[in-house]
Write a structure and sequence with these properties.
By secondary structure, this protein is an alpha+beta fold. Helices cover 31% and strands 26% of the residues. It folds into four domains: 77 residues, no CATH class; 205 residues, Thrombin, subunit H (Beta Barrel), CATH 2.40.10.120; 160 residues, Exo-inulinase, domain 1 (Jelly Rolls, Sandwich); 181 residues, no CATH class. The two termini are 22 Å apart.
Length: 802
């Protein structure tokens, strides 16, 4: 609990003049360990400094001190200006800038690289391109290309070779020199993008060939092979850039910056790059990218465009290759016989565009469309590739349409007619039976950026209405706006000459209505929070072996994001489970199944630990973990555990080490196997299998203690959910936004009312919000329950003060 003191505890306790220090210290000294957010490595308890651009690796013991500094000392030049400029002109056309995108679509990292093959091969550092990220390359002439393939990669040497499609354009490769023959004192030029300043050049010198001391770099992954030590400035964005000799040949790739002294860095010798060129291990960008990929077993895209997943929604971008920029996304769901209904919610970024539902598709040019276009709703029959075979059956202007917002489209297809609904309001009924059968899905026109969510197909999709009595009760309870006038012009005339007083009265009414709106918004938020609490309690109330851990974790994400399409995310996870069933032998022994599942999830499907954005909230949201194939130890472990449950693999559970959650396969002892072997899996580190010694060392690094029996006890689904919630609570507290943590604290107490830590947190939040009765309620609970480590006398004094 002590981790919450700086921002949450200080204000109320100082205001009350109460013993903050003694209360917080006594609580922190209790038996229950503090549940800090999952941490990527034991050596550091502070979060890694977020970086927009991955710098060259640094030789330092902490990430906090790894911020690069601008060089304050001039570098001694060894080349005459004419020679340096001539060499720069010779090399610069081979230099590239490399960027990769983050979860939110913006540039997350930037580095450098160089051309190694005229047909589009680019060399850089592996850490420059991130993990499972879209990658872009910019040439010296300003032309930009998406990477089509990770042609080769080697984690040990931190190298990657990328392929771009130059459309036949020949690039200028940089010749590779002999890095085994470099000499101490040899002059060099370094090329790169220091701090985003693309295509920069600097002079330097090779100062040594050196193998670094073990554990010298900040990521605990010090290279164990000789590096070229270089005396020249190395900054963020230099990684992957070449150092070249006086003949313009690459000798190495800049990869590490020293913080011991300025103007000192290290480069990977090109001899290792040469070996990688000779023995590539290509991965198509489709397999490299696991961010937002539509499941081909559920969706088929036609006519180009870009269709991707994000938070359960499908995002359409780019221009389709069909006439009018038409691009289609067909659902693989089996379409019922008529009558049937298909529905989706759609939101357009550009109201001049068009995107929505399609149905009765032949898998090509023929289909119907029901979609917003220019602020109106169209029902169109498409019978060919161009406008001459398209028929607009109806175009409706409707007040039910909400520009720039989510709009619910629903179509009922009968034998002879089509009925269209907009936001549950019937807006069109048209007799037409030219097309029937086929597929249903989504359509986009004119490069319209659009989002789709809640796609459904069934015999009847009409929204269920509130019972009449409940609707009346709710309507009566809601405060109605009270200022309207049917004779506004007459009233305005009467107020002429008293405008100041009239405006004051109107402003007062506005303030009153805004307060009412704020109350209604909070009521809506509380309704959502209460729904999530009830659903999660219901999920966790089942027998342990029947609890769907993915659904439970998904509800935590739903609490944060009410727009999350739960059904779509559950379908996505079931599709993942279906893929696992194809590779996990149902008849194999359980240990073999565990290894097969491990290979499927981490090696084949690309699930991996989030290192660049470790404390991103998305890492605690299972929908994002599923879409991005990226998470923290506990969420990646939850995915593995739930897959194992669905596949019927027994004895797979969570291992709740402090700070770093693991997965364990621990079969029960039997007469034939009195001491069966366990399997411990580190989901964050690519599903690495840990020995008992390695897991004990991991525990020692995080907790400072040797493994106890309780540390190896299986975590229940409820305990996993509480720990996932605590990660989000900690993130909110560390961001200085305790109010953002309040719904998650309430969720913890709904599913596990005995949690003293969250009870105390909520008491303080209630006090800060002015809810003294609520604060007293929680403090009284603590006084009655007497949790260990709490100074009850001080708590009682606080209670009396309230």
């Amino acid at each position: 609990m002590a981790r919450f003191l700086p921002r949450l505890f200080l204000v109320p306790f100082l205001l009350l003049g109460i013993w903050l220090g003694s209360l917080s210290v006594s609580w922190a000294a209790g038996e229950k360990p503090s549940e800090a957010p999952e941490s990527p490595k034991p050596a550091s308890t502070a979060p890694p400094t977020p970086k927009k651009e991955p710098e060259a690796k640094t030789t330092s013991q902490s990430k906090e001190s790894a911020e690069p500094t601008l060089s304050g000392n001039p570098v001694v030049t060894f080349l005459p200006p004419e020679k340096a400029m001539a060499l720069t002109r010779e090399v610069r056309d081979s230099i590239v800038s490399v960027t990769h995108s983050g979860r939110d679509g913006g540039t997350l990292g930037r580095g450098s690289g160089f051309v190694v093959d005229a047909d589009g091969l680019i060399a850089t550092n592996l850490h420059v391109i991130g993990e499972a990220r879209p990658i872009q390359v910019e040439l010296h002439d300003g032309s930009q290309y998406d990477v089509t393939e990770v042609h080769a990669s080697d984690q040990h040497y931190d190298l990657a070779i990328l392929r771009i499609d130059t459309k036949g354009k020949k690039l200028k490769p940089l010749p590779l020199g002999n890095s085994d023959a470099v000499s101490q004192g040899q002059p060099i030029l370094g090329f790169g993008s220091p701090r985003g300043l693309k295509f920069s050049v600097v002079q330097g010198v090779i100062s040594a060939i050196r193998t670094l001391d073990k554990d010298l770099t900040v990521d605990d992954n010090t290279p164990d092979f000789p590096l070229i030590q270089i005396a020249m400035p190395v900054e963020m964005g230099n990684s992957g850039g070449p150092i070249v000799d006086l003949d313009g040949r690459a000798l190495g790739l800049v990869t590490i910056k020293s913080l011991v002294t300025e103007n000192l860095g290290f480069a990977v010798p090109v001899s290792h790059l040469q070996k990688l060129i000779e023995a590539p291990n290509p991965i198509s960008i489709a397999n490299w990218l696991n961010i937002g990929v539509l499941d081909p077993g559920r969706w088929q895209t036609l006519f180009g465009g870009s269709w991707r997943l994000k938070s359960g929604a499908i995002r359409a971008d780019g221009e389709g290759s069909g006439f009018g920029g038409r691009s289609l996304c067909l659902s693989a769901k089996e379409v019922p016989t008529t009558p049937y209904e298909v529905a989706v919610q759609v939101r357009l970024d550009d109201e001049a565009g068009a995107a929505g539902l399609l149905f009765a598709s032949d898998g090509g040019d023929k289909h119907y469309g029901f979609y917003p276009s220019g602020g109106q709703i169209r029902l169109t029959r498409f019978e060919g590739p161009d406008v001459y075979s398209w028929t607009i059956l109806e175009q409706i202007a409707s007040d039910a349409y909400k520009p720039k917002e989510w709009n619910a489209l629903r179509v009922r297809v009968e034998d002879k007619k089509i009925i269209g609904f907009l936001n549950d309001e019937k807006i069109v009924e048209f007799e037409d039976d030219a097309l029937r059968g086929g597929k249903v899905g989504l359509c986009q026109f004119r490069s319209t950026p659009a989002e789709f969510r809640g796609f459904r197909l069934g015999t009847s999709l009409k929204a269920s209405a509130l019972p009449e009595d409940l609707a009346k009760e709710l309507g009566k309870g809601l405060t109605q706006p009270g200022f309207t006038s049917l004779k506004a012009d007459q009233l305005l005339d009467k107020l002429v000459g008293q405008a100041r007083a009239g405006r004051k009265a109107v402003e007062g009414k506005i303030a009153e209505l805004e307060a009412q709106v704020a109350e209604l918004r909070r009521f809506s938020e509380r309704l959502h929070e209460r729904e999530v609490q009830h659903r999660l309690v219901e999920v966790l109330g089942q027998p342990e072996e029947k609890i769907d851990l993915f659904e439970a974790g998904l509800l935590i994400a739903y609490l944060d994001n009410p727009e999350l399409d739960l059904g779509a995310s559950l379908e996505d996870f079931e599709a993942l489970a279906a893929g696992a069933r194809k590779v996990v032998d149902a008849k194999a022994p359980a240990p073999d199944q565990v290894h097969q599942l491990r290979n499927f999830l981490f090696d084949k499907s690309g699930f991996h630990g989030s290192r660049a954005e470790y404390y991103h909230r998305a890492n605690s949201h299972l929908d994002a973990v599923l879409e991005d194939r990226e998470g923290i130890p506990i969420t990646l472990s939850a995915v593995f555990i739930e897959l194992a449950r669905r596949l019927g693999i027994p004895d797979v559970h969570g291992l709740p080490f402090p700070g770093h959650f693991l997965v364990s396969y621990s079969p029960k002892a039997t007469k034939d196997h009195p001491a069966p072997d366990s399997i411990v899996i580190d989901a964050f580190n690519g599903g690495k299998i840990l020995s008992r010694l390695e897991s004990s060392e991991l525990l020692l690094g995080y907790s400072g203690r040797l493994g106890l029996a309780e540390d190896y006890a299986p975590a229940t689904a409820r305990e996993i959910v509480v720990r996932m919630c605590r990660n989000l609570i900690s993130i909110a507290m560390n961001e200085g936004d305790p109010k953002k943590a309040r719904p998650t604290i309430d969720l913890v107490l709904a599913v596990s009312p005995e949690e003293s830590e969250e009870r105390f947190q909520r008491a303080l939040l209630r006090f800060q919000e002015g809810d003294k009765s609520g604060a007293k309620e929680d403090i009284k609970w603590l006084l009655d329950k007497k949790p260990p480590g709490v100074r009850l006398d001080r708590l009682r004094e606080l209670y009396e003060t309230l």
